[in-house]
Amino acid sequence: MERLLWAPAPALVCGGKRGKGDDTVADPLGTVGEWLCRAALQPPPPPRVCGTPGGPPVTARRVRLSDGRHLAYEESGVPKETARYRIVFSHGFTGSRLDSLRASQEVAEELGVYMVGFDRAGYGESDPNPARSVRSAALDMEELADALGLDDRFYAVGFSLGCHAVWGALRYIPHRLAGAAMLAPVVNYWWPGLPAGVAAEAYGRQARGDQWALRVSHHAPGILHWWMGQRWLPTSTVVDNTTHLPNRRDAEVRRALAADGTLQRKREVATQQGIHESYYRDMTVMFGKWEFDPMGLPEPPCPVHLWQGDEDGLVPVELQQHVAGKLGWVNYHELPGTGHFLSAVPGLGDTVLRTLFG
């Protein structure tokens, strides 16, 4: 399993050849090499961009970015003009601008907290970005903050896979941050700072389909859209909402959300411009090759907090422990008997606000 995780995928050329540069040798996989090449040459369907002919309507408030794209956003808490603290929130995989910390309005008013959630590029009503990256996610947060007039510094908060934007902010715009918080942040198994054996063991405990989806996301992102559309291939249980959840609360929450149609409605909102531009680009950004290793970041000029459940079935707690242990400046909060859906933990949103601002 360690070899499967860490070995790079061979470069394939059409015609059953494998090579580097001008040198080619017979592909031992034979027609499989040609088959994969043809899959790579099949482009994903174009996005159905909001507000364009044939696309979904624009119903949300949006800001225009410097490259011409739009970001859709949703505000909560107290008015930004009177707020003492201003948060930009990055939603998780399958989420949208409508997600938040789920803090009570009473605590938000007591502390003076304003929060803005936004559809990350390609999600909901935010325009797609074919050049999405960890860096672009962070810069989108910065441009949104500037467009809304959130002053020189703001708080970056993220949930699950959306925390790649927070890691990006700590790397690319630390001078703009008053603080940062990450809730159950997804870990990239290929970060250089992770012990190879520990990462490979945690990876090996994932469902077979998730292992393959992550390997394709990392080694062959160009065929991910094709791979995920082949039901006879092992594909992501996370996308299908069938992942085994060892934590009882997580399992109950997912069962309830599936029963009342909430999961389906969230998926429809998130993917209305195309599942490739939302879910699949998320996967290739999160599990692709990063330009930096989070465990090599210098201490930022602001406090950073990280919350993790010890029964998280989506983010291995031992990898999170290693990340927090390597970064002495991360304030690590491990929640016993808790899974991945931290927004379902009673009072946690209020606890996060009081920890950041109390």
Structure description:
Pfam families: Abhydrolase_1 (PF00561). It comes from Panicum miliaceum. This is AB hydrolase-1 domain-containing protein. Residues 86-342 form the AB hydrolase-1 domain. This protein is α/β, with parallel strands linked by helices and 358 residues long. It folds into two domains: 62-192 and 289-357, Rossmann fold (3-Layer(aba) Sandwich), CATH 3.40.50; 196-286, no CATH class. The chain is built from 14 helices and eleven strands. It has helices spanning 2-6, 31-40, 105-111, 134-147, 164-172, 196-204, 208-219, 224-228, 237-240, 248-259, 262-270, 276-286, 317-326, 348-357; strands at 12-13, 17-20, 23-26, 61-64, 70-77, 85-90, 113-118, 154-159, 177-183, 304-309, 330-335. It has an eight-stranded mixed β-sheet with strand order 4-5-7-6-8-9-10-11, with helices on both faces. Strands 1-2-3 form a three-stranded antiparallel β-sheet. β10 (304-309), α13 (317-326) and β11 (330-335) form a beta-alpha-beta unit. α7 crosses α12. The longest helix has 14 residues, at 134-147. It is globular. The termini are far apart.
Low-confidence stretches: 1-30
Structural class: alpha/beta
Mean pLDDT: 90
The main pleated sheet reads as: 8 strands, mixed
Q: How many β strands by DSSP?
A: 11
Order of helices and strands: HEEEHEEEHEHEHEHHHHHHHEHEH
CATH 4th-level superfamily of the largest domain:
Alpha/Beta hydrolase fold, catalytic domain
Q: Report the portion of residues in β strands.
A: 15-25%
